[in-house]
Amino acid sequence: MAKFRKKPVVIEAFKLGEECPDWWADAVSQNHVTTHNIDGRWRDGPDYALISTLEGWMRADKGDWIIKGVVGEIYPCKPDIFAATYEPV
Prior knowledge:
Shape: globular
Strand order of the largest sheet: 1-5-6
Distance between the termini: 33 Å
Oligomer: single chain
Order of helices and strands: EHEEEEEH
């Protein structure tokens, strides 16, 4: 078995519930993402979102990182995995 190292890439990301970038708003308006509030009121952002990915629909909870990948794909990442995988540039 050979070993491989992941190539360094630069991604864009934000935490769900914080200020969102334009690419997220675009994904919502194109129905690639649906946002939900548990109590039906919009407070400081959605409580969770459902994101259409290449692997199917994935749920992102408030505080999860939302990543825009190298080819424009959008997917969620739990905070502990994000911290172990990414660092600011």
